[in-house]
Amino acid sequence: MTKKKQIVAIGRAAVDLNANEMNRPMEETSTFTKYVGGSPANIMIGTAKLGLDVGMITNVSDDQHGKFITNYFEKIGVDTSQIHVDENGHKSGLTFTEIKSPKESSILMYREEVADLYLAPEHVNELYIKNSEYLLISGTALAKSPSREAVIKALLLAKKHDVKVIFELDYRPYSWVSEEETSIYYELVADQADVVIGTRDEFDMVERYKPLTDKEISELLFKSTPHLVVIKHGVQGSNAFDKEGNVFEGKAFKANVVKTFGAGDSYAAAFIYALVKGKSVEEALKYGAASAAIVVSSHSSSEAMPTVDKIENLIKEQS
Amino acid sequence: MTKKKQIVAIGRAAVDLNANEMNRPMEETSTFTKYVGGSPANIMIGTAKLGLDVGMITNVSDDQHGKFITNYFEKIGVDTSQIHVDENGHKSGLTFTEIKSPKESSILMYREEVADLYLAPEHVNELYIKNSEYLLISGTALAKSPSREAVIKALLLAKKHDVKVIFELDYRPYSWVSEEETSIYYELVADQADVVIGTRDEFDMVERYKPLTDKEISELLFKSTPHLVVIKHGVQGSNAFDKEGNVFEGKAFKANVVKTFGAGDSYAAAFIYALVKGKSVEEALKYGAASAAIVVSSHSSSEAMPTVDKIENLIKEQS
Amino acid sequence: MTKKKQIVAIGRAAVDLNANEMNRPMEETSTFTKYVGGSPANIMIGTAKLGLDVGMITNVSDDQHGKFITNYFEKIGVDTSQIHVDENGHKSGLTFTEIKSPKESSILMYREEVADLYLAPEHVNELYIKNSEYLLISGTALAKSPSREAVIKALLLAKKHDVKVIFELDYRPYSWVSEEETSIYYELVADQADVVIGTRDEFDMVERYKPLTDKEISELLFKSTPHLVVIKHGVQGSNAFDKEGNVFEGKAFKANVVKTFGAGDSYAAAFIYALVKGKSVEEALKYGAASAAIVVSSHSSSEAMPTVDKIENLIKEQS
Amino acid sequence: MTKKKQIVAIGRAAVDLNANEMNRPMEETSTFTKYVGGSPANIMIGTAKLGLDVGMITNVSDDQHGKFITNYFEKIGVDTSQIHVDENGHKSGLTFTEIKSPKESSILMYREEVADLYLAPEHVNELYIKNSEYLLISGTALAKSPSREAVIKALLLAKKHDVKVIFELDYRPYSWVSEEETSIYYELVADQADVVIGTRDEFDMVERYKPLTDKEISELLFKSTPHLVVIKHGVQGSNAFDKEGNVFEGKAFKANVVKTFGAGDSYAAAFIYALVKGKSVEEALKYGAASAAIVVSSHSSSEAMPTVDKIENLIKEQS
């Protein structure tokens, strides 16, 4: 029997085009450097660099950008056997980024009829899900059909085969028809996941969570399937809750900030790495924070993902 | 405080146009009679005629057909406070029926961009769900957005307020993008309903149920929320299963068949009536079968819905 | 060589459902009678009944309604060799009519994704156009792609083979995206037609015509291809203009009005019949007016189309 | 009264992202340089650099890319008063280019729901058209509604105000629904233009032209509005025909080819410049060929557009 993958993610893999000229608006930049991007892609790249055995379920364009994404995954060690190549001309998404200052950066997205949202239920392989320890669901993949149904199919299969589900809320307003739809699908999937991770702003997308404290949200979720809930508050750190009633406070690490994007994905990658490795929640929070601090200090989101050594050194330094 | 509604349905209310000339193909008929139609509408009309306090959550066209539907509900005693009138020109669905012979009838549907599938989450009122004992979900309402999300919202609200959910599979191929989508949403909602009712063909829409016996399907569902499962086999009768392990066999009643359509809705109306009234599952199966036998002997689906007396008389006659 | 068709029309053929109960709003009617409908279909039925050799280029549903339309054309003598049967499930359009009073009638249309607007360029046969004396273009067929392109193809083919083009404006707000689009395509096609017929309201859809008198509109058109322009003013009669500078005034005939719909189509049928038969414009105006008077006195639009005798008798009576 | 613009173009203005690393496939390139692109935009940039008073009618995205395009036009001297900024989130098109070798280059386009195809009739200003000597129509702008209708409106206005129309076929398969649609609209617009320019492959998109020789195509067009027809054959040179029966053969100039894209636009810019300046057709063909030779020898399409001096020097050199 094949060894199980430690984690597989379902969601988008896209292309980032980061302006090389910094500290000016994008209409005045003239050259860009290309990276693989997209939250779940970044997380898988991050966990692969940390040494986990991981894979990606997605749909990419049948062109040079699609090939670039797949080649990069292969180079880094993310399994690409479940990367479907679109047959109907859908393009891989693009994100142009500009860094106006360490605190002000903005993005310009091309996500119209984008390949990753055309991942379809028939592209989701039961055996692949079954042979994984964890399934990571990225919230953006719920934004549109047929990707939405592909995710729900993966979720039903994970439950059928007792695969643990991590729901990373990853809210991107661009792709959704309405906030009411987001609220409905986020609540539906959160109820059936084992671990739920997001920023407080992302949790607030669910109407029912909005009036609640972090603790109350976690208690509501513990009545359904979840047993671990992580709510992030940016530089204020993050709160984690487990079903046994423990509350963990995580602090943000000091960083020499170049730009803020990429922080969430690097946090998630290292947090998940720690979880999968059986470390305590307290440890996992430190891994997440350290990893985030490293990525915000560099130019890209995916290429800058740190190694275990780098993370553990930073933890030592700042403890 | 207002008294709770005994049951409210979410799904389509449409117009049936039944050919008056029988035993010939529709291209040769020349006049039609107009009735209210659509499975959940028929079921609510049926339960109202049986004396229950019921309501309908739907979206109708802003025209004479929409008015006709609403007027008819009011006449029969179905609460119309949650009937939304479409603001974007969507038309109420039409079903032309022809009766070629008692065994052969066919339908011709107009359901393109139809009003009922434009019922949206914002039309679903939390208080109305909360003030109901049962919520009836019609499977066809899951076929397309935004009706799909309106149904999921109603389901989440029902669970929040401990309202019991009946899922009537009511599969209509016309409205769905693919059978894979049907499978996914049917499994998702069935898992979270209290009572699941459908024909065996409808249960077979769920890939995971297909290879299973009726009993195995019910056992799988009992691992999640459901506690009662009814699987119908047409003239062969129906099987009901409860979580306690009881199995009930229901027989079809003899009838002077004019046409077969309308049978399922009249069955559901009387079965649900019996459930709500606290009768045993065995009794409920008889009510369903008797009601179906009465409706297949007449020209329409909605107007022919029987009274309690008629049903109980037929039960006596055929016992 | 085959004899040329005298006239072929391109545009919609649909189903009318006329309420049998008159003088009440449609939400209170309960039975309907079925007829073939749609302006160009009615005109072809009218000209066939008047004895012309005519044909219809359209797309109908692959169901009982489509068959009903084709069968009726065959019965009346309209050539159906160019009637395409839709392969993608598009339905033939429906028009429910109610007659509230002789002066007040209204219609309720089902034209969403309707078969006639899916007539495509590949359904237009060059030889068929070439073998016709006249091509009648119905304005509604310009409302949406691919029907719009099918019409433009037919127009380009008619010009290639010196087939005369009659443009019947036939404006129906329902099918158009915007009035600006109507203005653009009406001006484009009117410029290239030989004969242009419409009500003054329909001519006013063209922005450039709006500020002009009837005479000025005709003079503008005479700078391009047209040589005959007919502008109708309902009960006030109609004005016809020819390129030679002649002006003809047509009077409306007295009628025992049951309902007003169908008047335009019966007018066009008889007017075109007279043109094709080589009668003078003055005569043609009388034929049109007499035919309209006959149809508004009856229940349907298509079945009521008069014979030559009936028209000529009425002309005699009212001269 | 304001002086008339010498030429205004209607069609797309987009962003080119040219790979900096040459002679390798794009999946292996990592940096890109940004330029303004799109055939009519390039032509206007070219004519502006040659000293004409020109303007652009288009719709750009409301973001940094849209601003970049508009800023660049302003810098070069293309009037931007008719550049509409999209209000519905449509993005400006992107073209990634790779240069594998001087003979093999390919492009990757992002044109899904792209801003330029959302130029609408209401964005076309009658006075602006009226105050121009020439209107340049780019064929790609006919590919989809509402841009298609914006172009037809501009065409009707040009004819109303005796503005000369140049139709640059500029066929891009990506944007069209079908070749049959292209054929129909190209024939329709070519018939009503004064000057028609395209490659032989582009002329072949019109079914009716396909079996004809260059000369026969021009003769067919001369029966309608056109008086000058230019058919290009790449390195074999081009043929021009005028209504008086003259035939002109243009030769391609020798060039140190870096890549082939951009050749057509630079040809058109210089050819049109010569026409507007009242030079002979023979001269204009030389200007076109010289300009093309200059642009294919450089990295970009727009920035590389030559000055009059450069063109005239090359003409001298190679005569």
Number of domains of chain A: 1
Helical segment count of chain A: 10
Share in β-strands of chain A: 15-25%
Q: What assembly state would you assign to the polypeptide chains in this entry?
A: homotetramer
Tell me, what is the CATH class of chain A?
Alpha Beta
The low-confidence runs of chain A, each spanning 5 or more residues with pLDDT under 50, are: none
User: Could you say what the CATH architecture of chain A is?
Assistant: 3-Layer(aba) Sandwich
Distance between the termini of chain A: 42 Å
- The number of distinct β-strands of chain A equals 14
The CATH topology name of chain A reads UDP-N-acetylmuramoyl-L-alanine:D-glutamate ligase
Main sheet specs of chain A: 10 strands, mixed
What's the helix-strand series of chain A?
EEEHEHEEEEHEHEHEHHEEEHHH
Estimate the mean pLDDT confidence of chain A: 95
Could you tell me which chain pair has the largest interface and how many residues each side has? A-D, 26 and 26 residues
Shape, per Cα inertia axes of chain A: globular
Structural class category of chain A: alpha/beta
Description:
In chain A, helix 1 packs across helix 8, helix 8 runs antiparallel to helix 9 and helix 9 packs across helix 10. In chain A, helix 5 links the parallel strand 10 and strand 11. The mean pLDDT of chain A is 95. In chain A, the strands form 2 sheets. In chain A, strands 1, 4, 5, 6, 9, 10, 11, 12, 13 and 14 form a 10-stranded mixed beta sheet that branches. Chain A is globular. The first copy, chain A, has 319 residues and is an alpha/beta fold. Chain A is built from 10 helices and 14 strands. Chain A has one domain: UDP-N-acetylmuramoyl-L-alanine:D-glutamate ligase (3-Layer(aba) Sandwich). Chain A is 34% helix and 23% strand. Chain A starts with a strand and ends with a helix. Chains in contact: A-B, A-D, B-C, C-D. Chains A and D meet through strand 3, helix 2 and strand 7 of A and strand 3, helix 2 and strand 7 of D.
